[in-house]
Design a protein that fits this description.
Strand order of the largest sheet: 2-1-3-12-11-4-5-10-8-9
CATH topology of the largest domain: Isopropylmalate Dehydrogenase
Oligomer: single chain
Order of helices and strands: EHEHHEHHEEEEHEHEHEHEEHHH
CATH class of the largest domain: Alpha Beta
Radius of gyration: 20 Å
Bound molecules: nicotinamide-adenine-dinucleotide, 3-isopropylmalic acid, manganese (II) ion
Number of helices: 12
Low-confidence stretches: none
Largest sheet: 10 strands, mixed
CATH superfamily of the largest domain: Isopropylmalate Dehydrogenase
Distance between the termini: 24 Å
Helix content: 25-40%
CATH architecture of the largest domain: 3-Layer(aba) Sandwich
Structural class: alpha/beta
Strand content: 15-25%
């Protein structure tokens, strides 16, 4: 029996509600499989912790997390703590500190999931977005100058290093090659003449090593339009940190909503633990009411299973989500159902046991 040490940071708002469901699914799968077992350890970090201690995570928190095989995170951020403080002190701290430079976000319309687009076939929405996750527009470099004066200004600098761009672009090429898919780079070289021109150059340079991968390069404005008008043109997508953030909420919207969008923050070298999370936030508008859809958190548990080497269970879990969506018996209100958050894990496990 192989044990995996999983650090749980359920966080704020609907975070604890959806993570609890994901945990039950992982435990249920482990019982079915019998060869591996998740050992969860909870860390009570988040906005409430901040209000009590003045910190989003305890001192030396990253050091503690290092010992884990994976991190399972719910959501961070809540009214009462400024977002730039809460996110910078926890979620972004982990992504940067653990060099989780790949953010893998599937945008796949499962059978039975609602889609607001007309004239689009279910199979046409099936892409994987590879988002740069360690630098770029999120590098946290800048300044506030002359506060309180008419000259007041804010500077926010993007950081695009050769190493940083190359490694995420290479990861995307490798993925496209392995899966025999096309690769689209999304950038904005026409306006951002330093950073994005550099990105585009590196995309072409690395591409010379992958003649078998069919590529295209789009501006982010046009790409957003095509996400809606012609999503079928995208298979593997590689893009910068901020563009990837925005495009994957758009991706969520066309592929069943925020309740179905998952993401994996990967440190591919496995020097540090990788982190798995739904891409949605703490949804204060519905928190504490049992209304949150935990399927995004459950999908991210499937990404965790893949990463830990249990791809067969990862795939079966996605299929179980699909069956749940097709049968429409146990769905949360965002998907048109009346089920509570806490009923979803049992329904998924019942499908897996069939
Ligand atoms: P959000 O994703 O929390 O919510 C956007 C909308 O989607 C809301 O109407 C919400 O009710 C709905 N929604 C989100 N997840 C849902 C789910 N699982 N089921 C059903 N409906 C769902 O985004 P926001 O409102 O911009 O942000 C709220 C807070 O979360 C902010 O503090 C923000 O900074 C933070 N945030 C955190 C993360 C993260 O931890 N990864 C991600 C995004 C936002
Ligand atoms: C996400 C979130 C975060 C991001 C925020 C909360 C900092 O929106 O994971 O998509 O922008 O990366
Ligand atoms: Mn986001």
């Amino acid at each position: 029996m192989k044990a995996y040490k999983i650090a749980v940071i359920a966080g704020d708002g609907i975070g604890p509600e959806v993570i609890s469901e994901g945990r039950k699914v992982l435990e249920g799968i482990s019982a079915l499989d019998g060869t591996f077992r998740p050992e969860f350890e909870e860390f009570p970090w988040g906005c409430e912790y901040y209000l009590k201690t003045g910190r989003m995570m305890e001192e030396g928190g990253l050091e503690k997390l290092k010992a884990f095989d994976a991190i399972y995170l719910g959501a961070v951020g809540y009214p009462g703590v400024p977002d730039h403080i809460s996110l910078s002190g926890l979620l972004l701290e982990i992504r940067r500190g653990f060099d989780e430079y790949i953010n893998l976000r599937p945008v796949k319309l499962l059978k039975g999931a609602p889609c607001p687009l007309k004239d689009v076939a279910q199979e046409d929405i099936d892409m994987i977005v590879v988002r740069e996750n360690s630098e770029g527009e999120y590098a946290n470099v800048g300044a506030r100058l002359y506060p309180g004066t008419p000259q007041e200004m804010a500077l926010q600098t993007g950081v695009f290093s050769r190493k940083g761009c190359e490694r995420v672009i290479r990861y995307a090429y490798e993925l496209a090659k392995r899966e025999k898919k096309t690769l689209t780079s999304i950038s904005k070289g026409n306006a951002l003449g330093y950073s994005m021109v550099f990105w585009d150059e590196i995309f072409r340079e690395v591409g010379k090593e992958y003649p078998e991968v069919e590529t295209s390069s789009l501006m982010v404005d046009a790409a957003s339009m095509f996400f809606v008008k012609d999503p079928g043109r995208f298979q593997v997508v590689v893009t910068s940190n901020l563009f990837g953030d925005i495009l994957t909420d758009l991706g969520a919207a066309i592929a069943g909503g925020m309740g179905l969008a998952a993401g994996a923050n990967l440190n591919p070298e496995r020097t540090f633990p990788s982190m798995f999370e739904p891409i949605h936030g703490s949804a204060p508008d519905i928190a504490g009411k049992g209304l949150a859809n935990p399927l995004a958190a459950i999908w991210s548990a499937s990404q965790m299973l893949d990463f830990l080497g249990h791809e067969d269970w990862g795939r079966r879990l996605i299929e179980a989500i699909e069956t749940l969506l097709v049968e429409k018996k146990t769905l949360t209100p965002d998907l048109g159902g009346t089920a509570k958050t806490g009923e979803i894990s049992d329904a998924i496990l019942e499908i897996l046991r069939r």
